[in-house]
């Protein structure tokens, strides 16, 4: 009886969000703009169900395929040679015009997308020691410990192939962001081991520059050094890690909510859910701990053309107090070296015997180039969800207060009605600093 009462409580309308989170069991993400991915690496296919997409959005299969092509295997010598076209099928959620088969309009109903697996080789896993021995630092052992059973071939849900659904849904999110405010979400490989990209302007770098080399680093000189290092490690039968940096431009201020739904917290969860992700930084991140408050603070100023509040620096990475401030959102995601390597390692079998294992099959010596569209997708999905939450809570009714009583608009795309406020200058004593008494915990 106690169990029945508890179940009824969980299913009550007042706890619907909590219930949905519990019911998803780890395969769903988002609140209003919500995805659920499904499928295993060596199963019939993988895909996603996207719920909460606004209606009347023009959407084509090609727009989704572009991002999937950037994620797919077999792109170069530094990615897994598995040969998959990753051709997407849109199963629901769109209405098509006369004669149209690949381009339609969203209905506002769930969008289901499927990519069929074509080139899986389960024998690489099942016909050798990998069927009983755990790969060190891989999810093999923990999946077995949790479920008592695991998909040995291809790693099942722990495989990066699961991210196909995220990237497909992320392409839809990218389209929505661009239509809403010209928002761009672009990522690049910023570090391979100790080799860092230099001279990358976060205001101007393009996807074409990122994709101009197989490392996906817009700094060509650094990309050549990164490629040489990856090749060196790859030829030795080993793997290598690094950092992907993602920049979101033209994001309006106001996205994110205190206390537990801060935008950077949501972005951290999104990016840390990507396979092989091991670290996350927002803005200057850990480097900011080496500065003083005076050096780290982003001082405000008024844009002389738009009248909007801006910051002279962006060490906060476009987020302050967990809420976007209208500057570029900048995050960094650290990825570990791939677990499956061709060198011999000590490990154990499922029945508790110590053995040595040499990885076989096809895998990425470096996940970074293919992680770029994955990070872009998760950032885009997070931003659309935050945007819809902001619209639903804070912008349901227009602010009818006079312009002079509203807070000054913030950010790169914001504009103050009537231009800069030339009257509100020298408040608190002319050119003297304004005194501020603070009593915070």
TrEMBL record:
<dbReference type="Pfam" id="PF01264">
    <property type="entry name" value="Chorismate_synt"/>
</dbReference>
<keyword id="KW-0732">Signal</keyword>
<comment type="pathway">
    <text>Metabolic intermediate biosynthesis; chorismate biosynthesis; chorismate from D-erythrose 4-phosphate and phosphoenolpyruvate: step 7/7.</text>
</comment>
<keyword id="KW-0057">Aromatic amino acid biosynthesis</keyword>
<feature type="signal peptide">
    <location>
        <begin position="1"/>
        <end position="17"/>
    </location>
</feature>
<dbReference type="InterPro" id="IPR000453">
    <property type="entry name" value="Chorismate_synth"/>
</dbReference>
<dbReference type="GO" id="GO:0004107">
    <property type="term" value="F:chorismate synthase activity"/>
</dbReference>
<dbReference type="InterPro" id="IPR035904">
    <property type="entry name" value="Chorismate_synth_AroC_sf"/>
</dbReference>
<protein>
    <recommendedName>
        <fullName>Chorismate synthase</fullName>
        <ecNumber>4.2.3.5</ecNumber>
    </recommendedName>
</protein>
<keyword id="KW-0456">Lyase</keyword>
<comment type="function">
    <text>Catalyzes the last common step of the biosynthesis of aromatic amino acids, produced via the shikimic acid pathway.</text>
</comment>
<comment type="similarity">
    <text>Belongs to the chorismate synthase family.</text>
</comment>
<dbReference type="InterPro" id="IPR020541">
    <property type="entry name" value="Chorismate_synthase_CS"/>
</dbReference>
<feature type="region of interest" description="Disordered">
    <location>
        <begin position="400"/>
        <end position="441"/>
    </location>
</feature>
<keyword id="KW-0028">Amino-acid biosynthesis</keyword>
<dbReference type="GO" id="GO:0009073">
    <property type="term" value="P:aromatic amino acid family biosynthetic process"/>
</dbReference>
<dbReference type="GO" id="GO:0008652">
    <property type="term" value="P:amino acid biosynthetic process"/>
</dbReference>
């Amino acid at each position: 009886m106690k169990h029945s009462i508890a179940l009824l409580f969980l299913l009550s309308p007042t706890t619907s969000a909590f219930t949905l989170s519990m019911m998803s069991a780890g395969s769903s993400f988002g609140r209003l703009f919500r995805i659920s991915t499904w499928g295993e690496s060596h199963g019939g296919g993988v895909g996603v169900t996207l719920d909460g997409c606004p209606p009347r959005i023009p959407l084509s299969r090609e727009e989704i395929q572009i991002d999937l092509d950037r994620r797919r295997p077999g792109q170069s010598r530094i990615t897994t040679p598995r040969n998959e076209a990753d051709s997407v099928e849109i199963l629901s959620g769109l209405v098509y015009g006369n004669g149209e088969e690949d381009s339609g309009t969203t209905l506002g109903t769930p969008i289901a997308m499927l990519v069929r697996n074509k080139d899986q080789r389960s024998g690489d896993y099942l016909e050798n020691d990998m069927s009983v021995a755990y790969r060190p630092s891989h999810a093999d052992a923990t999946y077995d410990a949790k479920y008592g059973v695991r998909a040995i071939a291809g790693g099942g849900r722990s495989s990066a192939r699961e991210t196909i659904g995220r990237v497909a849904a992320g392409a839809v999110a990218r389209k929505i962001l661009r239509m809403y405010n010209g928002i761009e979400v672009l990522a690049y490989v910023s570090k391979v081991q100790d080799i860092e990209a230099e001279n990358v302007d976060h205001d101007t770098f393009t996807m074409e520059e990122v994709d101009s080399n197989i490392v996906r680093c817009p700094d060509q000189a650094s990309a050549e050094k990164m490629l040489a290092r990856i090749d060196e490690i790859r030829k030795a039968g080993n793997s290598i890690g690094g950092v992907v940096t993602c920049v979101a431009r033209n994001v309006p201020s106001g996205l994110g909510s205190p206390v537990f739904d801060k935008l950077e917290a949501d972005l951290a969860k999104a990016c840390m859910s990507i396979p092989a992700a091991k670290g996350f930084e927002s803005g200057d991140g850990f480097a900011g701990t080496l500065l003083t408050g005076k050096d780290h603070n982003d001082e405000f100023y008024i844009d002389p053309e738009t009248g909007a509040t801006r910051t002279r620096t962006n060490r906060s990475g476009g987020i302050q107090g967990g809420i976007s401030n209208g500057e570029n959102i900048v995050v960094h995601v650290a990825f570990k070296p791939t677990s499956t390597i061709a060198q011999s390692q000590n490990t154990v079998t499922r029945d508790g015997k110590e053995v040595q294992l040499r990885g076989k099959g096809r895998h990425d010596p470096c996940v970074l180039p293919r992680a770029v569209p994955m990070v872009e997708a998760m950032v885009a999905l997070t931003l659309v969800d935050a945007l819809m939450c902001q619209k639903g809570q804070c912008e349901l009714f227009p602010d009818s207060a006079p312009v002079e009583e509203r807070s000054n608009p913030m950010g790169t795309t914001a504009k103050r009605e009537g231009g800069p406020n030339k009257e509100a200058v020298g408040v608190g004593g002319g050119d003297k600093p304004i005194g501020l008494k603070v009593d915070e915990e």
